Amino acid sequence: MDVINEIMQYSALGELNKWFRYLVVLLFSTIVTILFVMMVLLIENGAYRNIQFGY
């Protein structure tokens, strides 16, 4: 936990309010978790789906 606090202290988040810093970290963690779950679902079900990338 000390490493995370030190990284946040010396980053751009260091000047922000404590609760706002944790909100930014929570938002980032949520986005990364959603992307990881989407990747796992794509790997598991990709062969059985007709996936088209484009507009």
Automatic annotation (TrEMBL):
<keyword id="KW-0812">Transmembrane</keyword>
<feature type="transmembrane region" description="Helical">
    <location>
        <begin position="20"/>
        <end position="43"/>
    </location>
</feature>
<keyword id="KW-0472">Membrane</keyword>
<keyword id="KW-1133">Transmembrane helix</keyword>
<protein>
    <submittedName>
        <fullName>Uncharacterized protein</fullName>
    </submittedName>
</protein>
